[in-house]
Amino acid sequence: MHDLVEQAKQEEASHATFGFSAQPYRPDQALSDLLAILDDRIESEGVQVGLPIEFLHQMWTVCDFADTHISETVWLKKNIEGGSGSKSEVRQQTYQALIEYLEALPEDSQTEDPTPN
């Protein structure tokens, strides 16, 4: 996740260098980017590191359920803290909200509705 935040910072810097304005970036885009990278990593290294085949599907399901909660959390943080809404900031806040969401899930929710307590 940290790599994706750093990548966004580099993209922002290169766009600024060439005078391009930043495009709006949403938490759902950050989650899609994370899941795309996870898919690539699972295809290339998943079996080697012991990830179950259904791990990606589980993450998609959790992210789907968490999307509204994460979007609201990121929106609140941006408006309370006066953030810029940059791609790197949205990614950082989205991934932090996802981690908090995952940590709030009950242990036995792996097959049930992934709604935090």
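That was protein one. Protein two is written in the same sequence-then-structure order:
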Amino acid sequence: MDQQTVIELLVNSSPLAAFAGYLVYQTRSLQARMDDLNVTAQKREDNLRSRYDKVISDLQDEKAQLQQHQQHQLIALEKKVDDLVISVDNVNNIVQDLRIKDLARNINNAN
């Protein structure tokens, strides 16, 4: 409807037509406000979602770094344990050699 037709209906119609016109106007203005509120709510939701995604991403990165750090520490600890086992084997071999020498010395002294 064009503006001239609306004015003509309001002037020549009953008071209920004016009220109906007001209701149409109010409905349109409320719909515009609702649309604005929906846009604002969508922006807030998108903002919260991006912040949430960033926090999750940061936590996943931190977790990966901690796992990598623990893995490096575990590898270093395994190397130290391996070195310690080698050292203990060397000490054990030396002790066995000393026992053999002591046993041979005791046999030689007995003869």
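The two ends are 134 Å apart (CA to CA). Keep this in mind for the problem set.
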